[in-house]
Backbone:
């Protein structure tokens, strides 16, 4: 793999000097040359002037044009200069270009890293601007038959100019690229580029990046249909970053834990400004040796909505110099457990801090809208609630009851990759007996056995779970898998309306509107507002800016606010030091077409020469040549 | 035709106060107002000489005979007319310019003639182009002016200038004054005619008349030039350079004429048709010493 240039200059292209023409059709203008000669041949119309003595008029007058039609062509400086000027202008019009260097393929794919780290200013004005400058230099060397595709490599790869030879379009596309705050997905960009290249195409990719991108996926093992040149941008890794900020609530107080790290090779002294809801609470000086990290514990006022930390002084990368965290605890869900008695279930549910559990006997059950989730254990009401519920071992004859109990052998996950079974180890789980749910139309099986499905889940009309066996007839509650499964299911059944933890830039945030919410909108850190559909779970991915996001929901005419934060919090990005080598996918060796060379347009110089010739012609005319 | 048709009466009146100036005595056929080289019968004494038979004995100075006992004749300066020969160029090249050179030449010739006629000088008018017209009878006396003017106006301009054909008519002039009015642009050179003036012992003057448009070109660009006399044509593009060449050629030609005139003892003046006749006569020709 080609190793990128170590300096920040534009790529240097070298190659054989063979002239080519960018606008060969303009050669038709060469017809002006015979036209000039024809005009010279044609008799000029001159007004007749009577003079007293013709012999006094200079008899050394030379014919500039024919005195008689189609006379023999006589040498004339003026005619020569006219022909020369026309020839030079024609030469400029066909836009001759010298090969300017390195092999430019017929189809060049320019990949410009537009990820967060490209905002670093270790090279002026920024890494992204330098990359764009270098890309523009490549565009200037496109030949008339060459095509180029420009792909911005951000959190999502984006084709900004697709297979075009229009230089203006390409320049505009490159100059229009802005850096995002997320990590660059080079794999997606390369896959996209590979999709634009047909087998046998003469293609080459030019990657302008600092090399700080998401790790490449393994799917490129078979290689790419084009070679990739890595042009490194950026030099320094001297950066101090805030890489983590969390708020912890204990019985006594609340505190924030801030992680500050010096990624550079030089010791740094910084000061951390600590704010709650924008009000400055504290300024902590921090001195960090090369590579050293430090944790700060900072106070959080009880009434604070959000806290933020900022590194004063600034460095080459501003994005990781600020961190924001939501200080307010999320609203609790009320959960009703209807059971004749099931301590396992109750304890597993109580593990989740934001759940408020009410336990009642089946006889005391009354349908209530106050509960976000109802768990029925060995009981089934006559009318099932319209909402999320978990039904464990429904009594025979009830709506969801299965067939006759069957003995169960091994328990297994229907899909080991199901997120609901994440970290749930069913290896040593045994169930003595279970209702026969094979004919149940409840939903899809989550946990099953050879005899019958054991746990069914469904999304419609609400997220609901049906467990076909009595927990007391299984060793599942005794396994570590049980609380994890309950946790997974409860989070799935009752996702927090707005997750209050920190997200990475461009990471999708799932927002579940509260029941009864008539309007939902998100106010971004810059004050812009995005409206969401009120009646369904929304995925909000417009999270590129870092900072505090406010989710506003109108419930029964009352505005409810909740918050989440977006922070960089990425060690690989904050590290900033561009790698000397970037591991790129191999090139499939089937592509061996000879590449040709980039173009250096010289027509402006030729046009200047034409101007000089025309000036010479003017002088010659006035000197009577 | 009246004199006023060619020259304004006021100008004619002013011309009457002028007279042709000659540097030496002249001899004419009839009495005039000028000293003659011949001894004559005027009141101005010139010399004595011995009597020879056949002399008019009325001229014997008897007082001298009394003192010297010899017959001596008293000789007196003869006062004679001045024979003025005007040669006016009315070739094709003169019929050009604004004001027209031929018209100006006619008026100038008329003015000089009128000065001479008013002083009882004899005027012979010859108009020439490719050859001289017949001089006709000389004009004498103020009354002849009308006829002279009429003739001047009746002769059309045209033809190719040929100065060599002036040699014979100039050479047969009796001593007197010869004034040549021409633009001097004809080919071949004017020099043979000037030499003839010198040989004929003429007091002479060459008045070169040019139009302002040929002394300073007022056009540029492409043109087809046509010679006013020969009708020959030539393609030409006037640029500052080619215009300069023409002006240099014209200056060379006029300088040649001036030098040739001076070499032959002739007065020379270059006149522009833009100059009013009044000023030409009263200022330029007086400064030249032709009129006084």
Residues:
């Amino acid at each position: 793999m080609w190793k990128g240039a170590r300096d920040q200059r534009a790529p240097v292209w070298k190659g054989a000097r063979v002239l080519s023409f960018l606008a060969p059709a303009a050669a038709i203008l060469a017809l002006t040359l015979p036209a000039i000669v024809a005009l010279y041949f044609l008799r000029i119309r001159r007004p007749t002037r009577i003079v007293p003595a013709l012999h006094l008029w200079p008899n050394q007058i030379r014919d500039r044009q024919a005195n008689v039609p189609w006379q023999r062509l006589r040498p004339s400086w003026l005619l020569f200069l006219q022909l020369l000027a026309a020839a030079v202008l024609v030469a400029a019009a066909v836009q001759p270009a010298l090969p300017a260097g390195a092999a430019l393929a017929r189809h060049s794919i320019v990949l410009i890293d537009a990820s967060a780290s490209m905002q670093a200013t270790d090279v002026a004005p920024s890494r992204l601007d330098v990359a764009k400058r270098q890309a523009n230099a490549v565009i200037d060397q496109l030949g008339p038959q060459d095509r180029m595709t420009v792909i911005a490599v951000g959190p999502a790869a984006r084709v900004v100019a697709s297979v075009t030879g229009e230089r203006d379009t390409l320049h505009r596309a490159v100059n229009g690229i802005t850096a995002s705050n997320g990590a660059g997905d080079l794999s997606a960009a390369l896959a996209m580029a590979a999709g634009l290249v047909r087998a046998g195409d003469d293609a080459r990719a030019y990657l302008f990046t600092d090399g700080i991108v998401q790790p490449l996926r393994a799917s490129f093992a078979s290689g790419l249909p084009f070679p990739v040149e890595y042009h490194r941008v950026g030099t320094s890794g001297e950066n101090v970053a805030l890489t983590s900020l969390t708020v912890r609530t204990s019985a006594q107080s609340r505190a924030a834990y801030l992680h500050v790290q010096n990624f550079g090779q030089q010791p740094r002294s910084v000061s951390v400004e600590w704010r709650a809801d924008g009000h400055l609470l504290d300024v902590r000086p921090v001195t960090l040796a090369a590579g050293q990290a430090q944790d700060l514990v900072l106070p959080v006022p009880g009434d604070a909505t959000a806290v933020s930390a900022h590194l004063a002084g600034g460095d080459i990368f501003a994005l990781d110099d600020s961190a924001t965290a939501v200080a307010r605890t999320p609203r609790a869900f009320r959960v009703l457990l209807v059971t004749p008695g099931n301590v396992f279930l109750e304890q597993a549910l109580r593990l989740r801090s934001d759940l408020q559990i009410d336990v009642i006997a089946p006889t005391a059950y009354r349908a209530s809208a106050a509960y976000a989730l109802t768990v029925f254990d060995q009981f089934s009401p006559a009318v099932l609630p319209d909402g999320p519920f978990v039904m464990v071992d429904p009594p025979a004859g009830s709506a969801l009851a299965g067939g006759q109990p069957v003995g169960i052998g091994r328990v297994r996950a229907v899909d080991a990759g199901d997120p609901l079974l994440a970290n749930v180890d069913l290896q040593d789980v045994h169930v003595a007996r279970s209702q026969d749910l094979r004919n149940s139309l409840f939903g899809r099986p989550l946990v099953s056995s050879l005899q019958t499905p054991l746990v069914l889940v469904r999304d419609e009309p609400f997220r609901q779970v049906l467990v076909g066996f009595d927990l007391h007839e299984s060793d599942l509650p005794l396994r570590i898998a049980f609380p994890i499964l309950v946790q997974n299911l409860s989070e799935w059944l009752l996702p927090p309306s707005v997750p209050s933890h920190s997200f990475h830039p461009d990471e999708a945030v799932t927002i579940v509107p509260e029941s009864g919410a008539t309007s939902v909108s998100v106010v971004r850190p810059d004050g812009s507002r995005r409206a969401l559909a009120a009646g369904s779970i929304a995925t909000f991915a417009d999270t590129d800016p870092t900072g505090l996001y406010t989710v506003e929901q109108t419930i029964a005419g009352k505005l409810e606010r909740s918050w989440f934060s977006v922070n960089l919090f990425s060690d690989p990005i904050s590290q900033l030091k561009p790698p000397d080598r970037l591991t790129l996918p191999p090139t499939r060796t089937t592509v061996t077409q000879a590449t040709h060379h980039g173009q250096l347009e010289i027509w402006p110089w030729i046009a200047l020469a034409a101007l000089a010739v025309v000036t010479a012609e003017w002088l010659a005319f006035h000197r009577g040549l | 035709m009246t004199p006023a048709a060619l020259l304004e009466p006021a100008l004619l009146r002013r011309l009457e106060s002028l007279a042709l100036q000659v540097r030496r005595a002249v001899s004419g056929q009839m009495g005039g107002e000028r000293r003659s080289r011949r001894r004559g019968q005027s009141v101005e004494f010139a010399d004595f000489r011995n009597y020879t038979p056949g002399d008019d004995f009325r001229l014997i100075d008897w007082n001298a005979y009394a003192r010297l006992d010899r017959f001596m004749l008293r000789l007196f300066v003869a006062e004679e007319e001045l024979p003025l020969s005007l040669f006016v160029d009315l070739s094709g090249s003169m019929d050009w310019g604004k004001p027209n050179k031929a018209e100006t030449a006619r008026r100038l010739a008329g003015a000089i003639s009128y000065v001479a006629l008013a002083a009882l000088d004899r005027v012979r008018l010859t108009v020439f182009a490719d050859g001289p017209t017949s001089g006709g009878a000389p004009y004498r006396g103020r009354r002849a002016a009308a006829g002279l003017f009429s003739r001047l106006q009746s002769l059309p301009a045209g033809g190719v200038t040929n100065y060599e054909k002036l040699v014979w008519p100039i050479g047969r002039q009796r001593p007197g004054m010869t004034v040549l009015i021409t633009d001097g642009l004809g080919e071949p050179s004017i020099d043979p005619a000037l030499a003839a003036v010198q040989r004929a012992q003429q007091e002479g003057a060459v008045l070169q008349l040019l139009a302002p448009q040929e002394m300073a070109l007022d056009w540029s660009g492409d043109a087809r030039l046509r010679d006013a006399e020969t009708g020959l044509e030539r393609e030409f593009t006037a640029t500052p350079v080619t215009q300069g060449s023409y002006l240099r050629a014209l200056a060379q030609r006029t300088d040649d004429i001036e030098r040739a005139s001076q070499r032959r003892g002739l007065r020379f003046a270059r006149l522009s048709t833009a100059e009013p006749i009044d000023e030409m006569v009263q200022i330029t020709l007086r400064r030249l010493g032709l009129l006084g």
Remarks:
- Chain B touches chain A at residues 93-94, 96-97, 101, 183, 185-187, 211, 214, 219, 222-230, 232-237, 239-242, 245-246, 249-250, 253 (CB under 8 Å).
- The longest strand of chain B covers residues 31-50.
